[in-house]
Inverse folding.
């Protein structure tokens, strides 16, 4: 955390953010373990040594990181994104149609919720929301008529 506070833009980098989460998780436990009689002899010291090793690994993992793999250096494609929105929308709507066609006895909640097939179908139905969100964002940026068609389809 001290490393992150030394520079102006370091508070937005991985070591500071990971260190902040680590300290927020570690400090309450470290304070409560000081007087814990259930720990074996030397247990607190070993626990703190492991915490120091973990914090060092956080920093070393950032500082000595290799260059990104070439396979991950891909270019963003609006066309592929719109294709993904279409696939997600159609996939989700198929499961939505299937869910709505189930017999009434399967759709009756058991102890407050669905079980079995309706639960699985409802899970996959949620994919349609992601297709709609991608298409809506694409339409807002490019005013693509095809993105508008996907949005209208999902809303219908």
């Amino acid at each position: 955390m001290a490393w992150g506070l030394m520079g102006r833009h370091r508070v937005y980098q991985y070591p500071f953010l990971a260190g902040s989460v680590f300290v927020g998780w570690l400090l309450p436990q470290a304070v409560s373990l000081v007087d814990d009689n259930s720990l074996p002899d030397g247990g607190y010291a070993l626990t703190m040594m492991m915490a120091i090793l973990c914090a060092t690994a956080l920093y070393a993992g950032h500082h000595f990181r290799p260059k990104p793999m070439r396979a991950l250096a891909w270019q963003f494609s609006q066309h592929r994104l719109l294709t993904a929105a279409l696939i997600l929308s159609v996939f989700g709507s198929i499961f939505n149609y299937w869910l709505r066609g189930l017999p009434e006895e399967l759709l009756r909640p058991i102890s407050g919720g669905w079980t079995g097939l309706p639960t699985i179908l409802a899970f996959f139905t949620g994919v349609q929301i992601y297709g709609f969100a991608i298409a809506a964002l694409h339409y807002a940026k490019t005013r693509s008529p095809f993105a508008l068609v996907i949005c209208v389809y999902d809303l219908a």
Summary: The chain has two domains: 2-63, 76-155. The mean pLDDT is 87.
